[in-house]
Amino acid sequence: METIYWFHSYETWPSNTRLTGVSEILIPSCEVSTIE
User: Fold this and answer.
1) Cα separation, 30 vs 36, whole angstroms
2) Domain spans in the chain, listed from the N-terminal domain onward
3) Distance (Å, rounded) from C-alpha 32 to C-alpha 36?
């Protein structure tokens, strides 16, 4: 659930560079969780 939350946050605040770096690693994990 936390992974999905981060993924949404990245899309909500793409200007945040810190989130962009973290999301880069979470995006793949979130994608799998969303499909499941």
Assistant:
1) 10
2) 2-35
3) 6
Helices (H), the chain: 2-12, 17-35
Q: pTM here?
A: 0.14
Residue type, 32: V
Give per-residue pLDDT as tens, 1-36. 454 445 554 454 444 445 555 545 555 554 544 555
Q: Tokens standing for 6?
A: 């981060």
Tokens in use for 11? 């899309």
Residues in the chain: 36
